[in-house]
Amino acid sequence: MSNIAIEFDDLGHAYKPGHWVFQKYQAEVPHGSIFALLGPNGAGKTTLLKALLGALKPTAGKIAIEGRTALVPQLFQVTFDYSVLDMVLMGRARQVGLFSQPSAQDEEAAMDSLNRFGMADFARHPFHELSGGERQLVIFARALVSEAEILILDEPTSALDLRNQIKVLDWITRLSHEDGLTVLFTTHHPHHALAVADNALLMLGGTKYASGPAHDVLSEENLHTLYGVEIKHLSFEHKGEQHETLIPVLP
Amino acid sequence: MTEMTIVAKTLPVTPIPMKLSDKWFGWAIPLLLDVGVLVAVLASLCIGAYPMSFGQAARIVMHLAWPGPLPANPPWSVKEITVVQVIRLPRVLLATLAGLGLGISGTALQAMMRNPLVGPDIVGVSSGAAFGGVLAMLWDFSPAGIIGLAFCGGMLAMACTFSLAKLSEADTDSMIQILAGVFIGAFFLALIDLIKHLANDAQLPTMAYWLLGTFVGADAKKVAMIAVPTLCAGAVLMTMRWRLNLLSLGDIDAKTLGMNVAMLRWLIIGLVSLIVASQVAVSGLVGWVGLVVPHIARMLVGPDHRRLLPTAGLLGALFVLSLDDLTRALLKAEIPVGVLTALVGTPVICFLLWKSQGKGWGCE
User: What is the pTM assigned to this prediction?
Assistant: First the structure.
């Protein structure tokens, strides 16, 4: 087993011949690390994510994935009103045979996972009645019970209030550091990427991209090129610890 | 200047604790429905011009199911056993099996297409199977030939529906799939009209009455024709019922959870086509059951397909059997059951639509 969980090799995709959404992308995501994917609207984040999940065949290059993946989609909506426990139990799909039903052990594993995220009391609640932040935690619990090694999150903090954003970012860090999961997430918040990601990929469109350690890639210059706005990098001390963040400068 | 006080509040979300008994309580309704179907089958045997008591019908059925040495003075007359064995039991079993199959296939389709507004008649599979059936009638095929061509027609219609949706490059959009089903269904209905136009004077009335959906003319052969495909395909679907939960999440999500979505989808399409084809081959177009029954079942046991699929099957059996009893018992001139299912199904689905306002279809 190599140290690389995900590798983009000369990756490119064009919906129409010659009209490349992105081209010649090269990036590596080491096992157990956190990887952030940033780019303005239309830069091809969703296309790249679809290619990563196997829902779209890239026009050029290849993606190598080593490990089981689990997806945490943006704004998770379900057609049918499943309970929270039913939702988490679905994470056991790989462990349950095609013509079998989940066993008592599978239900126990689902409850344990819910318990870990502090959601066990909501096991019988309808999933759609939960708040956005609670839903994210349930989907995290589902990913954990699926024994996935790679977690892919599509804008996990969008549509969440500040408290839930912090909660989700905290869980991303814990799942990577405590459980050894590889996490790849897309975001519109550079400060979130700077706070938790080890590596980042900035999608500038076409053949332009910046990839590498998050601290280096998320520079004021790169972010200005990416979004066309002034973004300042700030360092400060809080409770004896050194912190860094990025804030946009309003015109 | 006014001083502002900030009060930190935690919004209360009442936790519902897990209870072991819930697991068993959830199965109480399907178990009750099991008993209900059994009672309805026996009660249906008492309905008709020749009067018969419930006990007598039960005794005859017991004797037919477990034939032993006949007592010197059997507690039933030859007329009674003939009425049950030759006339009523085949029809009752036919209606029960048709309802069972339609309830199961409608539920499976709704999960697979992630849309509670689909049924075998909406996605074109019923029209495709009916086209196969009338074509077999035109060519004077045997009953086995009718079921074979009906199956091919049903599969062809489903394949066309999914291919058309794929062509639009929005094949994961359930609304596109429904529209494709409506178009394909309309196409096969036009083909049915064409066959009717080509049929001779002897074939046309049979085709027309058969298409309306009826259990008239039920016999043991027809029962076998529907029982074998429905029970076999239904049993396979039952073993995969938990997978329907996963399929209903959408292709990408199901795929990342480790499922072979394409293989599972085609397997379900094949099984559903087989069930619907066998129903259409023996009793014509019986619409609305596969659309309405899953909704009612969902209201009773919730959306988890582990409980929903058996419940919808049993409820479908009860629904079709009751409507067939109604046509036999109350109405002098027998109305085809397909007409009655549409007459009852439309207001029921309208009521459900009104009831689910603002909540979304899946949240009954």
Answer: 0.87
